Amino acid sequence: MALFEDYFSFIDLCPTTVLLTTTFLLFLCLAYSSFASHTGNEPPGPRRLPLLGNLLQIDLKRPHNTLCEFSKKYGSVFTVYFGPTKVVVLAGYKTVKEALVNYSEEFGDRMIATIFDDVHEGHGIVFANGDSWKEMRRFGLSSLKECGMGGKGAEKMIIEECHHLIEMIKNYKGEAFDIKWPMNYASSNIICSIMFGSRFDYNDPVFKETVWVSTDNLKHVGTAEIQLYNMFPWLGSLISKRKVVLQNVEKILATMNSSIQNLKATFNADECRGLVDCFLTRQQKDEESHVVGSHYHEKNFTFTVTNLFAAGSDTTAITLRWALLFMVKYPHIQDQVHEELSRVIGNRQVSGDDRKLLPYTNAVIHETQRFADILPIALPHQTASDVTFQGYLIKKGTTVFPLLTSVLFDKNEWESPHTFNPSRFLDEEGKFIKRNAFMPFSAGQRVCLGVSLARMELFLFFSSLLQHFKFSPPPGVTEDEVDLTPSVGFTVGPSPYELCATMRM
User: Fold this and answer.
1) Which residues of 127-166 are buried (b: 16+ CB within 10 A; e: fewer)?
2) Residue 237 neighbours by CB under 8 Å, 6+ apart
3) Total-model pTM
4) Strand-pair category, 392-394 with 387-389
5) Which residue spans within 102-157 are E strands per DSSP?
6) Collapsed DSSP state (helix, strand, coil) of residue 478
7) Which pLDDT score, from 0 to 100, does residue 269 have?
8) Kindly report the CA angle at 284 between 281 and 290, in degrees rounded to 5?
């Protein structure tokens, strides 16, 4: 009976046409006997059905929850089948770190899901492998650094954007509003400034639509429907959200190409306005040198810019939205942050150098990143070669899921991990301490490209907002009623909410 209960829970997620198809497949598969989940010295795992694998046992809305439950039974390295696709899951801090850091080459390839292969075709930084990926990542790191990422140049951009965001929030005059779009516009403008050399007005219609479409796509690609398409590509014509995703991508590419062409028309090799100019300079050098097989071509150009825009906008904005929601939920913590800011900073502008002077504020930001858990499963990896790991043979080309949520909530590393407690990042003297199991940006070869930029954005935006405003629930809602239920998507943000922002200074 449990099998059929799982099935009927699962099919509620799908459109009618997919229901009919999967129902037919179910009965077809049940005509065959189920078989063992592993052979030889491969990682263990739950028994599976032919073709469907463990699909009926997995909550496709929040698969990380199912995988965490599996890890309790099968250990820190186990096998699960998403449809016909074999996946090795890595759970817990020690296992994830060992795989991604100590075996970084073996676990360093990217598994590119069907929907991303449809879009990127192996180009760009995030969903690529091989020499092209290595070259684009090197370019991305060096160019972002040249354009100020993590340094004073980026700090100046972020502080300027803080002022624009603060002014926008002031316009609500203490009334309840949704912080989602102001925060998305602000974080998107940082990466736009770094890439294009200029920011956009929050009311610019093209900018607003691009941010909206990018955010919408990240929601769609995390849905059960798209996951089904990734597992069974032949369902493509039945998956309505696939068409929406591809249409959104076309809109984003058109906007990015337009911005790139505008910069090309005024390009001067002696003046670097941003990352796009860095690419144009390198492209020009390769053309002049007649480099054969150069990776600096138009598709890599466009998808590198698009990848950076999406990655640089969404994750920071979502984390900041969680941070403000936590401040509304836990006003005593918000009061402690403001007290530290008032005592140390006063009325002056917060700077990047103040981070070491604000240990409690820094601790709250880190606990937000840990507790919010916005990417519970790291972008899937793929083994680049056969590897024997913790006594198990994992063959070349195997999909690997580093379960980051199991790291951020590892009971062996965090006391009371399901409690929001910034003090876990402070020592007995109140000084900030680093924690080894703090791994929201993943680790190894595929660690987030913009870690230093993200850290600076989170610190400056959060500190500036808490310095200027007191955040509280909308009228009629108590702190106890503030909902911390996460939304469903590629990245995990809070459910839609409103708050009130009252001026402090």
Assistant:
1) bbeeebbebbbebbeebbebbbbbeeebbebbbebbebbb
2) none
3) 0.90
4) antiparallel
5) 109-110
6) coil
7) 83
8) 145
Q: 378, 375, 363, 374: which is closest to 435 by C-alpha? A: 363
If we measure between CA atoms, which residue out of 97, 196, 194, 96 comes closest to residue 449?
194
Residues with Cβ < 8 Å from 351, sequence gap 6 or more? 155, 159, 460
Look at residue 23 and give its three-state secondary structure.
Answer: helix
Q: For residue 89, give Cα distances in angstroms to 58, 97, 126, 300.
A: 13, 13, 20, 30
pLDDT tens, 154-188? 899 999 999 999 999 999 999 999 999 999 999 99
**Region at 469 (left for phi over 0; alpha for psi -120 to 50; beta for the rest):** beta
Task: Indicate the helix (H) or strand (E) that contains 139.
Answer: helix 130-146
Write down the pLDDT at residue 141: 87
CA 79 remoteness from chain centre:
24
DSSP codes of every residue in 168-192: HHHTTTT--B--HHHHHHHHHHHHH
Let me know: does 23 contact 14? Beta carbons within 8 Å: no
Task: Check whether 30 has a pLDDT greater than 50.
Answer: no
Average pLDDT value for the chain: 89
The per-type count for the chain, helices as H runs and strands as E runs, is 17, 9
Give the number of C-alpha atoms closer than 13 A to the C-alpha of residue 22, restricted to the C-beta side.
Answer: 28
What's the CA dihedral at 406, 409, 413, 417 to 10 degrees? -160
CA angle 57, 61, 64 (to 5 degrees): 70
Which tokens in the block code for residue 40?
Answer: 């030889």
For 450, the token pair is 């913009």
d(C-alpha 384, C-alpha 227), whole Å: 23
pLDDT for 79-109, tens place per residue?
999 999 999 999 999 999 999 999 999 999 9
The full length of the chain comes to: 505
6 within 8 A of 213, measured Cβ to Cβ: no
Longest alpha-carbon distance in the chain: 72
Helix residue spans in 418-468 (DSSP H): 451-468
